[in-house]
Design a protein that fits this description.
43% of the residues lie in helices and 14% in strands. The chain is α/β, with parallel strands linked by helices. The protein binds nicotinamide-adenine-dinucleotide. Nicotinamide-adenine-dinucleotide (NAD) binds next to helix 5.
C-alpha cells in the first residue's frame, strides 16, 4: 500500500549538473525548512560545488549568490549517494541523457543508461518509501520503465511513486527562470497514490510559484511536453533561419520580417532572431529523440518532419561558414579569422553543440589561422572540443588555432572577424572597433552571426559587414 506523502522534509537530487545544481539550489533557497542534498558520482564536480571560493562547476548569472546563501544551511553537495537517497522523502533524477553514439538508434535515441543506473541504485539502497521524480529529459514512457525497475528491485515495505517534472529553464537565465517559471509541469499516474505524490511535489513549488502556474497532467503528457517544447522552440529558430536565406538574396531584412510577423498575436515576437544556428545540449538531442520515437512508432512522416528542423540548423551553420569563405575571395588559406565567442549562447560557459565548433572546424579545414576569444569558456574546454571535432591532437591543431584572453589580441593581421556568440561585450558601444580595424588586413570584414553589431557604424569605420538575413550586406 502506498504511504501518503504529505510533507517533504528532505530532498535528494541525483546529478549535480546544469539542471540539478541550479534547480535544487533554488528549491533550498525558497524552502528553508527542506534539507536538500545534491549528489553526483563525479567527485571533481562535487568538490567544485563545495569549493571555498565558490568556483562552481557551471557559470550561471545569480547562481553563486543562491549557493552562498544556502550551502551549509539546508543545501549540501555530496558524493555519498546512498546516504542521501536513504534519508530523502523525494528524489529527483537529474542525470544526463545524451544521444546514443553507437548501437541501435545511434545518433538519434537517448542513452538511458544513466537514468537506469540511478533508478536501480535508488531501488537497491532505499530503506523506506520514496517519491521518485524524473527531472531528466527522457523519451515518452520512460517513467514506465523506471517504475518497473523500482518495483522489481525494491526491499519489502518500500513503495515508490513516480512523477515526471521536466525542467524548462534555459541556460544563461536559469536562476531567473527558476524564480519565475512560466509553468511547473508535474505529470503523475491517474491513481490516488499518483495524486498524493503530485500534491506533495506541488506543495514544494508552491513555496514560491503561484498555484495557477503549477500544472498537473498525466505522466505521458508531461514527458512528451518537454520534447515538444524544445522541438517547437528549435523549429522557430530553423523557420526564421530558413527565411534569413531568402532575405539575403532578395534584399529583405530578416529583422523587419521577424518584427512584422511577430506582431501577429497568433505568432508572437519571441524566439524569432535569425542566427548562425541553435546549439546547446538540448534542442538537437531532444528533436532527434522525437525523430527516433516517431520512427519506433512507425510514423516515418512525423520523423521526417522533425528531422528537417535539425537539417536546417546544420545547413545554416555551414552556409554561414561558406559565406565567410566566399566573401574572402574564395579562400581563407593562411588568413587569420578572429572568432568572437565560443559558448553556444551568451551568459553561459557551456559549449555543448555550439555552432562555434562547426565554424572553427570549417575554418581549420580551409587551412585558415583561427584566433578564438570567449569571455567565459575555459581554454581547456575549447581545446577539448576542437580536438574532438577535428580528430586532431592539440599540438597539430595549435599550428592553426590560437586561444586568447581578450578580443583585441585576436585582431592582429586578421582578414575577418566572425561574431558567433551574442555576448553583450561585442554589442557594446564601447567595443573598440576602430582599434580592431586598425589592426586588421584590408579589406577588413565583419561577419555577424547574431545580428548584434551596429553595421552602419562599422561601415563608417571602413569594415565590410555581412549580417545573417540582411540583403544590404557589404
Ligand atoms: P549534466 O551532464 O550537466 O549533469 C548530469 C550529472 O549527472 C553529471 O554530473 C553526472 O556525473 C551525473 N550522473 C550521471 N549518472 C549518475 C548517477 N547514477 N549517480 C549520480 N550522478 C550521476 O546534464 P544537465 O545539463 O544537467 O542535464 C540533465 C538532464 O536535464 C538531461 O536529461 C537534459 O536533457 C535535461 N535538461 C537540461 C537542460 C539544460 O539546459 N542543460 C534544460 C532542461 C533539461
Amino acid at each position: 500500500a502506498s504511504v501518503p506523502h504529505t510533507e517533504i522534509k528532505r530532498i535528494c537530487c541525483i546529478g549535480a549538473g546544469y539542471v540539478g545544481g541550479p534547480t535544487c539550489s533554488v528549491i533550498a533557497l525558497k524552502c528553508p525548512h527542506i534539507i536538500v542534498t545534491i549528489v553526483d558520482l563525479n567527485p571533481a564536480r562535487i568538490a567544485a560545488w563545495n569549493s571555498e571560493d565558490f568556483a562552481l562547476p557551471i557559470y550561471e548569472p545569480g547562481l553563486e549568490d543562491v549557493v552562498r546563501q544556502t550551502r551549509g544551511r539546508n543545501l549540501f553537495f555530496s558524493t555519498e549517494v546512498d546516504k542521501a537517497v536513504q534519508e530523502a522523502d523525494l528524489i529527483f533524477v537529474s542525470v544526463n541523457t545524451p544521444t546514443k553514439t553507437s548501437g541501435v538508434g545511434a545518433g538519434y535515441a537517448a542513452d538511458l543508461n544513466y537514468v537506469e543506473s540511478a533508478t536501480r541504485h535508488i531501488a537497491q539502497v532505499a530503506t523506506s518509501s520514496k517519491i521518485v521524480v524524473e527531472k531528466s529529459t527522457v523519451p515518452c514512457r520512460t517513467a514506465s520503465s523506471m517504475r518497473t525497475i523500482l518495483e522489481s528491485n525494491s526491499r519489502p515495505g518500500c513503495h515508490f511513486d513516480i512523477l515526471s517534472n521536466p525542467e524548462f529553464l534555459a541556460e544563461g537565465t536559469a536562476i531567473a527562470d527558476l524564480y519565475n517559471p512560466d509553468r511547473v509541469l508535474i505529470g503523475a499516474l491517474d491513481t490516488p497514490e499518483g495524486a498524493a505524490a503530485c500534491a506533495a511535489l506541488s506543495s514544494v513549488y508552491a513555496n514560491w510559484v503561484p498555484k495557477e502556474r503549477i500544472l498537473n497532467v498525466g505522466l505521458w503528457s508531461s514527458e512528451l511536453s518537454k520534447l515538444a517544447a524544445n522541438a517547437l522552440l528549435a523549429q522557430r529558430i530553423s523557420s526564421i533561419n530558413a527565411l534569413s536565406a531568402i532575405c539575403e538574396t532578395t534584399g529583405a531584412d530578416v529583422r523587419e520580417v521577424a518584427h512584422a510577423v511577430g506582431l501577429d498575436s497568433r505568432i508572437g515576437s519571441k524566439f524569432l532572431r535569425a542566427s548562425v544556428g541553435f546549439g546547446g545540449s538540448c534542442f538537437q538531442k531532444d528533436i532527434l529523440n522525437l525523430v527516433y520515437l516517431s520512427e519506433s512508432l512507425h510514423l516515418p512522416e512525423v520523423a521526417k518532419y522533425w528531422r528537417s528542423v535539425v537539417d536546417m540548423n546544420e545547413w545554416q551553420k555551414l552556409r554561414f561558414a561558406k559565406t565567410v569563405v566566399d566573401n574572402l575571395f574564395g579562400t581563407i588559406t593562411n588568413k587569420r579569422i578572429a572568432v568572437l565567442g565560443f559558448a553556444f549562447k551568451a551568459d553561459t560557459g557551456d559549449t555543448r553543440e555550439s555552432p562555434a565548433i562547426t565554424l572553427v572546424k570549417s575554418f581549420v579545414a580551409e587551412r585558415a589561422k583561427v584566433a578564438v576569444y570567449d569571455p567565459q569558456v575555459s581554454h581547456d574546454q575549447i581545446w577539448m572540443d576542437m580536438q574532438s571535432a577535428c580528430s586532431t591532437p592539440k599540438q597539430e591543431l595549435s599550428k592553426q588555432l590560437t586561444l586568447h584572453t581578450d578580443a583585441q589580441s585576436t585582431f592582429a593581421g586578421a582578414s575577418a572577424i566572425v561574431v558567433v556568440t551574442e555576448w553583450a561585450e561585442f554589442a557594446s558601444p564601447n567595443f573598440d572597433w576602430e582599434g580592431a580595424f586598425a589592426a586588421m588586413t584590408k579589406p577588413a570584414f565583419v561577419f555577424d552571426g547574431r545580428g548584434i553589431v551596429n553595421g552602419a557604424r562599422l561601415r563608417e569605420i571602413g569594415f565590410k559587414v555581412v549580417t545573417i538575413g540582411r540583403g544590404e550586406n557589404l
